[in-house]
Write a structure and sequence with these properties.
The chain has 198 residues and is mostly helical. The chain has a domain of 54 residues. The chain has 9 helices and 5 strands. Strands 3-4-5 form a 3-stranded mixed beta sheet, covered by helices on one side. A two-stranded parallel ribbon has the order 1-2. The longest helix is centred in the middle third of the chain and has 14 residues. Belongs to the UTP23/FCF1 family. UTP23 subfamily.
Length: 198
Protein backbone atom coordinates (compact mmCIF):
# COMPACT_ATOMS: atom_id res chain seq x y z
CA UNK A 1 0.00 0.00 0.00
CA UNK A 2 2.90 2.35 -0.71
CA UNK A 3 2.80 5.47 -2.84
CA UNK A 4 3.07 4.93 -6.58
CA UNK A 5 3.74 7.26 -9.49
CA UNK A 6 2.65 6.76 -13.07
CA UNK A 7 5.57 7.46 -15.35
CA UNK A 8 6.63 7.00 -18.95
CA UNK A 9 9.63 7.84 -21.15
CA UNK A 10 10.25 10.17 -24.07
CA UNK A 11 10.71 7.22 -26.40
CA UNK A 12 7.20 5.93 -25.61
CA UNK A 13 5.70 9.38 -26.25
CA UNK A 14 7.64 9.67 -29.52
CA UNK A 15 6.36 6.27 -30.67
CA UNK A 16 2.77 7.22 -29.83
CA UNK A 17 3.16 10.41 -31.89
CA UNK A 18 4.42 8.49 -34.93
CA UNK A 19 1.54 5.96 -34.75
CA UNK A 20 -0.92 8.78 -35.47
CA UNK A 21 -4.64 9.23 -34.81
CA UNK A 22 -5.39 5.61 -33.85
CA UNK A 23 -3.53 5.98 -30.54
CA UNK A 24 -4.31 9.67 -29.93
CA UNK A 25 -6.21 8.83 -26.71
CA UNK A 26 -3.33 6.74 -25.39
CA UNK A 27 -0.96 9.60 -26.20
CA UNK A 28 -3.08 12.08 -24.19
CA UNK A 29 -3.12 9.71 -21.19
CA UNK A 30 0.65 9.09 -21.43
CA UNK A 31 1.35 12.86 -21.54
CA UNK A 32 -0.26 13.22 -18.09
CA UNK A 33 2.30 10.81 -16.61
CA UNK A 34 5.65 11.83 -15.21
CA UNK A 35 8.35 11.64 -17.90
CA UNK A 36 11.51 9.80 -16.77
CA UNK A 37 14.90 10.42 -18.35
CA UNK A 38 16.02 7.50 -20.48
CA UNK A 39 19.47 6.98 -22.05
CA UNK A 40 18.05 7.49 -25.58
CA UNK A 41 17.62 11.26 -25.38
CA UNK A 42 19.40 12.07 -28.66
CA UNK A 43 18.39 8.99 -30.67
CA UNK A 44 14.95 7.65 -29.63
CA UNK A 45 14.29 3.88 -29.85
CA UNK A 46 11.05 1.89 -29.78
CA UNK A 47 8.95 2.04 -26.62
CA UNK A 48 9.52 -1.64 -25.74
CA UNK A 49 13.33 -1.32 -26.05
CA UNK A 50 13.28 1.80 -23.90
CA UNK A 51 11.19 0.18 -21.15
CA UNK A 52 13.48 -2.87 -21.11
CA UNK A 53 16.52 -0.61 -20.68
CA UNK A 54 14.83 1.17 -17.76
CA UNK A 55 14.36 -2.10 -15.82
CA UNK A 56 17.77 -3.53 -16.71
CA UNK A 57 20.46 -4.26 -14.08
CA UNK A 58 18.09 -5.72 -11.46
CA UNK A 59 15.53 -2.88 -11.69
CA UNK A 60 17.22 -0.43 -9.28
CA UNK A 61 14.29 2.05 -9.30
CA UNK A 62 11.69 -0.67 -8.56
CA UNK A 63 9.62 -0.06 -11.69
CA UNK A 64 6.46 -2.01 -12.55
CA UNK A 65 5.98 -2.52 -16.29
CA UNK A 66 2.44 -1.93 -17.60
CA UNK A 67 1.97 -3.08 -21.18
CA UNK A 68 -0.40 -4.85 -23.57
CA UNK A 69 2.50 -5.91 -25.82
CA UNK A 70 2.90 -9.70 -25.57
CA UNK A 71 6.50 -9.68 -26.89
CA UNK A 72 7.52 -7.14 -24.26
CA UNK A 73 5.75 -9.17 -21.55
CA UNK A 74 7.75 -12.30 -22.49
CA UNK A 75 11.05 -10.36 -22.35
CA UNK A 76 10.16 -8.79 -18.99
CA UNK A 77 9.37 -12.22 -17.50
CA UNK A 78 12.90 -13.39 -18.35
CA UNK A 79 14.32 -10.96 -15.78
CA UNK A 80 13.46 -11.82 -12.15
CA UNK A 81 11.88 -9.30 -9.83
CA UNK A 82 10.00 -7.08 -12.32
CA UNK A 83 6.24 -6.90 -11.65
CA UNK A 84 4.10 -6.95 -14.80
CA UNK A 85 0.72 -5.26 -15.22
CA UNK A 86 -1.84 -5.33 -18.03
CA UNK A 87 -5.50 -4.53 -18.66
CA UNK A 88 -8.28 -7.12 -19.09
CA UNK A 89 -11.82 -5.81 -19.71
CA UNK A 90 -11.16 -2.32 -18.28
CA UNK A 91 -9.49 -3.80 -15.17
CA UNK A 92 -5.81 -3.42 -14.27
CA UNK A 93 -4.38 -6.84 -13.43
CA UNK A 94 -1.06 -7.56 -11.69
CA UNK A 95 0.42 -10.65 -13.31
CA UNK A 96 1.54 -13.54 -11.11
CA UNK A 97 5.33 -13.81 -10.55
CA UNK A 98 7.20 -15.41 -13.44
CA UNK A 99 8.96 -18.79 -12.98
CA UNK A 100 12.31 -16.97 -13.05
CA UNK A 101 11.21 -14.69 -10.21
CA UNK A 102 9.96 -17.63 -8.14
CA UNK A 103 13.25 -19.50 -8.68
CA UNK A 104 15.24 -16.40 -7.73
CA UNK A 105 13.26 -15.91 -4.51
CA UNK A 106 13.77 -19.55 -3.53
CA UNK A 107 17.52 -19.25 -4.18
CA UNK A 108 17.70 -16.13 -1.99
CA UNK A 109 15.75 -17.86 0.79
CA UNK A 110 18.08 -20.86 0.61
CA UNK A 111 21.08 -18.55 0.97
CA UNK A 112 22.49 -19.32 -2.48
CA UNK A 113 21.98 -15.77 -3.76
CA UNK A 114 21.96 -12.32 -2.23
CA UNK A 115 19.10 -9.99 -3.11
CA UNK A 116 19.62 -6.44 -4.34
CA UNK A 117 18.33 -4.95 -1.08
CA UNK A 118 20.68 -7.12 0.95
CA UNK A 119 23.62 -6.05 -1.25
CA UNK A 120 22.75 -2.39 -0.64
CA UNK A 121 22.42 -2.85 3.13
CA UNK A 122 25.73 -4.78 3.29
CA UNK A 123 27.45 -2.00 1.35
CA UNK A 124 26.06 0.66 3.71
CA UNK A 125 27.14 -1.29 6.80
CA UNK A 126 30.67 -1.70 5.42
CA UNK A 127 30.91 2.03 4.71
CA UNK A 128 29.67 2.88 8.20
CA UNK A 129 32.23 0.54 9.81
CA UNK A 130 34.99 1.95 7.61
CA UNK A 131 35.73 -1.34 5.89
CA UNK A 132 35.10 0.11 2.44
CA UNK A 133 36.01 3.63 1.49
CA UNK A 134 33.20 5.56 -0.08
CA UNK A 135 34.51 7.42 -3.16
CA UNK A 136 32.05 10.28 -2.55
CA UNK A 137 33.37 10.80 0.97
CA UNK A 138 36.92 10.71 -0.37
CA UNK A 139 36.06 13.54 -2.78
CA UNK A 140 34.54 15.59 0.02
CA UNK A 141 37.51 15.09 2.35
CA UNK A 142 40.10 16.05 -0.24
CA UNK A 143 41.96 19.08 1.00
CA UNK A 144 42.65 21.92 -1.32
CA UNK A 145 46.26 22.49 -2.13
CA UNK A 146 47.61 25.73 -0.75
CA UNK A 147 48.68 27.85 -3.64
CA UNK A 148 49.40 31.41 -4.44
CA UNK A 149 46.88 33.94 -5.72
CA UNK A 150 45.35 33.62 -9.15
CA UNK A 151 47.83 35.25 -11.56
CA UNK A 152 45.00 36.53 -13.74
CA UNK A 153 43.43 38.46 -10.84
CA UNK A 154 46.67 40.13 -9.76
CA UNK A 155 47.68 43.58 -10.95
CA UNK A 156 50.99 44.00 -12.71
CA UNK A 157 53.78 45.58 -10.68
CA UNK A 158 54.30 49.23 -11.53
CA UNK A 159 57.82 50.34 -12.37
CA UNK A 160 59.33 52.71 -9.83
CA UNK A 161 59.29 56.29 -11.10
CA UNK A 162 62.68 57.99 -11.07
CA UNK A 163 63.10 60.82 -8.65
CA UNK A 164 62.78 64.02 -10.66
CA UNK A 165 64.34 66.06 -7.87
CA UNK A 166 67.69 64.28 -7.90
CA UNK A 167 70.59 66.34 -9.32
CA UNK A 168 71.71 63.55 -11.67
CA UNK A 169 68.38 63.53 -13.50
CA UNK A 170 68.46 67.33 -13.80
CA UNK A 171 71.87 67.19 -15.42
CA UNK A 172 70.69 64.62 -17.89
CA UNK A 173 67.75 66.72 -18.88
CA UNK A 174 69.76 69.91 -19.27
CA UNK A 175 72.51 68.32 -21.28
CA UNK A 176 72.16 69.14 -24.94
CA UNK A 177 74.21 68.35 -27.96
CA UNK A 178 76.35 71.24 -29.00
CA UNK A 179 76.77 71.62 -32.72
CA UNK A 180 79.47 73.70 -34.33
CA UNK A 181 77.69 75.72 -36.94
CA UNK A 182 80.81 77.37 -38.33
CA UNK A 183 81.67 75.52 -41.53
CA UNK A 184 85.33 74.96 -42.31
CA UNK A 185 86.45 76.01 -45.77
CA UNK A 186 88.44 73.43 -47.65
CA UNK A 187 91.22 74.99 -49.78
CA UNK A 188 90.68 74.44 -53.52
CA UNK A 189 92.85 71.85 -55.24
CA UNK A 190 95.05 73.38 -57.98
CA UNK A 191 94.05 72.40 -61.55
CA UNK A 192 97.51 70.99 -62.31
CA UNK A 193 97.17 68.41 -59.57
CA UNK A 194 93.67 67.44 -60.84
CA UNK A 195 95.08 66.81 -64.36
CA UNK A 196 97.97 64.75 -63.02
CA UNK A 197 95.62 62.65 -60.93
CA UNK A 198 93.23 62.11 -63.85
Amino acid sequence: MGETQLCTTRCVLKELETLGQELYGAKLIAQKCQVRNCPHFKSPVSGSECLLSMVAEENPHHYFVATQDQNLSVKVKKTPGIPLMFIIQNTIVLDKPSPRTVAFVKAVEAGQLVSVHEKQSIKQLKEEQGLVRNPELRRRRKKKKVGGPNPLSCLKKKKKAQDTKSPASEKKRKRKRIRNRSSRKVPPVPSEQQGAEG
